[in-house]
Design goal:
The protein is of the alpha/beta class. Helix content is about 45%, strand content about 15%. It has one domain: Rossmann fold, CATH 3.40.50.
Length: about 300
């Protein structure tokens, strides 16, 4: 079978930068939160000014975080020998399930967390990879995910496959579009069973926004990925951390430096305390479990242009 042809059995889309949807801005997200919480007051000039101020604030945080990470990357020499990977040799899979679940407050929170993550990822990375494979909605199933990895890694010209994994997570478990809660060890077993060792050698990095993603790292590594990241507990700062990660990774900063950028931006943004406040209304027992700080495991020094 020609794996370069579009496989219509998978409910997924491959988009070029020209097709990418620009993510909703902060003001649109604020309106969604206002509606979810039943606040119907008209938007005043001062309110609009505040929203624009928040947008500028987040952009400043991301720029500062990316600069910090790049300075650290320059100061630190890559660990271990790497070989060059050109744009034509690398492909990206973005998996994004429906995060807008639960009651009004939870849905409002996840709208903020997601912040148009798929559109932003395609826009930022579409020109940096040979292809970006988008699995979303009903297409973001475990079977589709593993099948897509199998198809991409089977191509002779591909040397590196990266994954941005945006879904719900629990300790040692993740959520796909179908099948509900799945042990990440089961995902690892499916990858190992369906991909040869040569194929798994092409798996490079996983950037995960799943809650409790730090507990998933060993399974991703055992699947073949060279370096992976995951949050300590509930992940809530994507509005600031995700753009900072992308800004560093796309310009050639190491994965480790990009995670530093994400953590700096996330801590400075204040999204975690805000999420704790939101959760304290509906799920007080979860309010003290918000901790987006990302941990990494794997080969340090990897960049978008390198493979160990």
């Amino acid at each position: 079978m020609d794996t370069d042809r579009h496989d219509e059995s998978l409910a997924e889309q491959e988009r070029s930068p020209a097709d990418a949807q620009i993510p909703e801005d902060i003001s649109a997200t604020g309106m969604a939160i206002r509606a979810a919480l039943g606040i119907d007051a008209p938007v005043s000039a001062s309110d609009l000014e505040g929203r624009f101020s928040m947008t500028r604030h987040i952009r400043s945080i991301c720029a500062f975080a990316a600069l910090t990470a790049l300075l650290l990357a320059v100061a630190a020499a890559p660990a271990g020998a790497t070989t060059s990977v050109s744009k034509s040799q690398r492909e990206l899979v973005i998996l994004s399930t429906d995060l807008s679940q639960g009651g009004p407050i939870e849905r409002a929170l996840y709208d903020v967390v997601e912040m148009g993550g798929t559109g932003l990822g395609v826009t930022a990375l579409g020109t940096r990879y040979n292809a970006v494979h988008l699995l979303q909605g009903a297409g973001a199933s475990q079977a589709n995910f593993v099948t897509r990895l199998d198809q991409i890694t089977a191509r002779p010209g591909v040397r590196a496959v990266d994954v941005i994994f945006m879904t719900h997570g629990l300790t040692d478990n993740v959520v796909f579009a179908t099948g509900g809660i799945v042990a990440v060890a089961t995902v690892r077993s499916m990858i190992v069973a369906n991909l040869t060792m040569a194929q798994r050698a092409k798996l490079r990095m996983v950037f995960s926004t799943a809650c409790f993603g730090a507990s998933h790292r060993s399974a991703w590594r055992d699947s073949g990925f060279k370096i992976v990241s995951g949050s300590r507990e509930i992940y809530a700062d994507s509005a600031a951390s995700y753009p900072a990660f992308l800004s560093t990774w796309t310009v050639g900063g190491s994965f480790s430096a990009a995670i530093v950028a994400a953590n700096v931006a996330g801590l400075a943004s204040g999204w975690d305390p805000a999420a704790s406040l939101w959760l304290s209304v509906s799920h007080p027992s979860l309010a003290d479990q918000v901790n987006s700080f990302r941990l990494t495991t794997g080969t340090t020094g990897l960049t978008i242009n390198a493979m160990p």
